[in-house]
Write a structure and sequence with these properties.
Strand content: 25-35%
Order of helices and strands: HEEEHEHEEEHHHHEHEHEHEEEH
Low-confidence stretches: none
Largest sheet: 7 strands, mixed
Distance between the termini: 15 Å
Strand order of the largest sheet: 8-10-7-11-9-12-13
Mean pLDDT: 92
Oligomer: single chain
Structural class: alpha+beta
CATH architecture of the largest domain: Alpha-Beta Complex
Radius of gyration: 19 Å
Number of strands: 13
Number of domains: 2
CATH topology of the largest domain: Phosphoribosyl-aminoimidazole Synthetase, Chain A, domain 2
Shape: globular
CATH superfamily of the largest domain: PurM-like C-terminal domain
């Protein structure tokens, strides 16, 4: 298999399909496009999500916190605690480990999330530091939002700009190569996008407003997340390519490496579906979160379309494959 997330057909067949024990307390279970689970405790639910960081270098500690907290936020829930597992290759220095943990604690503190446990070890099983984080949140059980709730007629909203995380990772890890191409100011701006990777504010706001589904955009980018929302909800989706906001520096970096910004890892961005899309966009922007309506949910459950009037094209959105970031790393 190629580097990246396991393809969805294999995931369903040999991972999710092998689960054979089900308890009544579990009210949200694994599925394509569903990043969280939830366990019922009386009128409350404990919402949980776990994720590793494998494809980032300089900012791994920051990213590790954001990706799990963002998953919790995609359920409309504020994250409250995070557990961190750190696997270090033989030869890792104390300074490297300390710098990593400083990133974790600083980022968690910014989100008002407590580091509540984890595990740390040095092992010959890895050749670089691997982090895995598990985040938990608490909410009234009837307020937890699933990725499966999109309804025909819902607006499809994108927060911030496509390729946000991938831009920051590439700019940080390939700084020397990109310096002469971008220039110092543009490169520094691209690196600074690492500070915009939380979707906790928009997730909590959208949950209270009445979003029908939410999905933070990780591997596979905007188009991958759009496909997964439709797949999880059993609907179709039409995305207007011309409406998807992309930072100029993201376009330049993607052009340089020959990759698509619409298939590039995009933590910091969220896809939200909502009946009153315009109302939600106004609320988000009032709270300093850029938001754009980029499409609509349809009732044709096998139809996932990307259209562009500017280009005169209508193409099918494929299931997400390996993220564009891996092409750069290779």
């Amino acid at each position: 298999m190629e580097a990246g997330k396991i393809p969805n057909d294999i995931l369903n067949k040999i991972i999710i399909g092998k689960i054979n024990t089900f308890r009544k307390e579990v009210i949200m279970r694994p599925g394509i496009g569903e990043d969280c689970s939830a366990i019922e405790f009386d009128k409350y639910a404990c919402v949980m999500s776990t994720d590793p960081i494998t494809a980032a270098g300089n900012n791994a500690g920051r990213l590790a916190v954001h990706i799990s907290c963002n998953d919790i936020a995609s359920s409309g829930v504020e994250p409250l605690g995070i557990m961190v597992t750190i696997l270090c290759p033989v030869g890792t220095t104390e300074i490297e480990l300390e710098q990593l943990m400083e990133q974790v604690c600083e980022t968690a503190g910014q989100l008002n999330v407590e580091v509540i446990g984890g595990h740390t070890e040095v092992t010959p099983a890895v050749n670089k530091i691997i982090l895995s984080t598990t985040c938990v949140g608490k909410a009234l059980k009837d307020k937890v939002i699933s990725s499966t709730g999109a309804k025909p007629g819902d607006s499809v909203i994108l927060t911030k700009t496509a390729g946000l995380e991938g831009t920051a990772i590439i700019a940080g890890d390939f700084e020397n190569e990109l310096l002469s191409y971008l220039g110092k100011n543009e490169l520094e701006y691209a690196k600074s996008l690492i500070n915009s990777l939380s979707v906790v504010p928009e997730g909590v706001l959208a949950g209270k407003f009445g979003a029908t589904s939410m999905h933070d955009i990780t591997e596979g980018g905007v188009l991958g997340a759009a496909w997964e929302i439709a797949e999880a909800s059993g609907t179709g989706i039409t995305v207007n390519k011309d409406s998807i906001p992309i930072e100029p520096v993201t376009r330049r970096i993607c052009d340089y490496f020959g990759i698509s910004p619409l298939r590039l890892i995009s933590s910091g961005c969220m896809i939200i579906t909502c009946q009153d899309g315009e109302g939600l966009v106004k609320l988000l922007e009032k709270n300093n979160v850029k938001a754009t309506i980029i499409g609509i949910i349809t009732d044709k459950n096998s139809e996932r379309i990307l259209m562009s009037k500017e280009e005169g094209t209508v193409v099918e959105i494929d299931a997400p494959g390996p993220d564009e970031l891996y092409k750069v790393i290779k």
